[in-house]
Amino acid sequence: MQKRTRKIIKIGVFLDIPGLACSRAISGFYRFARRKSNWRIFLFPVQREGEALRRIVANFSPDAIFTGHADTVRAYGGKIPYVLLENIEPSLPLGMGATLNLDNIQLGRAAAEKLHSLGYRNFGYFGIVFNAETTSSGDMLSRYSKIRCGAFERRVGDFGFPISSYMPKRGSPYDESAIIAWLKSLKKPCGILAFSDEDAQYIISICYENRIPVPKQIGVIGIDNEEYICDNVVPPLTSIEPDYEGAGYRAGELLDEFLAGDRSHAGAKEMYGVAAIQNRMSAQSITSAANRTAHALEMIRADPANAPDPATIARRMNLSLRILELAFKQIQGHSITTEILSQRLLLAKRLLKTSRLSIGEIAANCGFASHASFLASFRRRFGLTPREWRNS
Fold first, then answer.
1. Judging by beta carbons within 10 Å of its beta carbon (0-12, 13-18, 19+), is residue 364 exposed, middle or buried?
2. What is the CATH number that goes with domain 104-242?
3. pTM, whole model, 2 decimals?
4. Measured distance CA(331)–CA(187) in Å, rounded
5. Residue extents of the structural domains in the chain
C-alpha cells in the first residue's frame, strides 16, 4: 500500500525589524512551527515595497506569510493567509488575515508601577529621540511614544503624583541643551521611563556628563531589553521586554488556523504585552543597599585604573565604610576591593587582546602597584599568565 504524503506548506517570514524584536518573534514562530512537520519556513529580511520585494514575489509563491509591513501583504494581493505584526493601517486586516500589535498602554502602566514600587514619587517621561527620523516606521514609533506617555501619566496619576515629560516633535532639531535643562529641572529623586533602550542609554550618559547620579537622583527604565545596550551602560539599564516571542508563537497559531480553513480569527486585531521587566542597576530602590552599591560601582567602573580606594568611595557617598561594605557584599556577594581588582583585570584582558602594549605597560595602565602583583593576580583569577592568555 502506497504511503500518503502530506502537502508541504511554504511560509514566508518578512520581519526586517530591529534587534531583539525580530529574533524573539522568529524564535516564537519557530517554537510553534516545530510541531508542524510539513511546514517549511523561508526568511526574507525585506518587507517594504521596492525592487527587492518585487523580485521575491515574482519567484516565490508561499502558502502563507508572517510579516512586519503591510507592503508585503499588498505585494501578494492579500490573497493568501497572513499575520501582520505592528499594523497602523485601519483598512487591515482583510481577507484571511490578522494583526498583532504591541500593547503600549501595558508598557506605560508597567513602568509606572515598577518605579512607584521602588519608592520614586517624582516621575518623568522621555520621548523618542533616536530612530524617529531614520527609520521607515517613524510615524508608528511617534504614535507609540504618545500612547506610552499617556498610559504612564495616567497610572502615575492613579498614585497621586504628576509627571514631567520631554516629547520632542518629530522633525524638530535635536536640542541637547533643552534635554539637559529638562533633566536639571526635575524634582529629585525622579523615576524616568524612556521610549526605548537607546533613548534610556542617552539619558544615562547625559546624567553622567552633568554629574546627576543614576539611580540615586534619576532612576531610568528603558523598553526592549536589548542586552547589547542594557549590559554595557553604567549603571546597567533596567528594561521592559515586550512579549515578542509570544507574538511570534501566536502568529504561528493563527496561520495554522487559516491554513486549515478556520476563519474564527480572520480579521482579528490582537495585542501582546509585557514578557518581563529585567531588573538591573539603573532603577533601584532609592533607599536600599542596591542604590548604594550602584553608586559605588559607577565610581569604580568609570575608571578602574584610578578607582578610589573603598574608604574614599564611602567618604564621597557620606557613608561609613562599614555600612557601604555591608551593602556591597549584600548585593554583589564580595567586597569593594575585590570589585576594583576584578575591573582592573577585565581592563587588562581588553588591552592584552586589542593593544600592542607590553605586559609591564598594561600593568601600569590598569592601576597595579607592580608588575609582580599584576602577574600574580592575573594568574590567580584566570589560571594563565598574561602572556599565555594573550598568545592563546
1. middle
2. 3.40.50.2300
3. 0.70
4. 28
5. 9-101+245-273, 104-242, 289-391
Which range of 40-44, 171-175, 325-329 scores highest in mean pLDDT? It is 40-44
Please give the CATH superfamily to which domain 9-101+245-273 belongs: Response regulator (3.40.50.2300)
Per-residue pLDDT tens digits for 241-273? 999 999 999 999 999 999 999 999 999 999 999
Burial of 118 per CB tally in 10 Å (0-12, 13-18, 19+): buried
Q: What is the dotted CATH code of the domain comprising 289-391?
A: 1.10.10.60
Sequence letter at residue 49: E
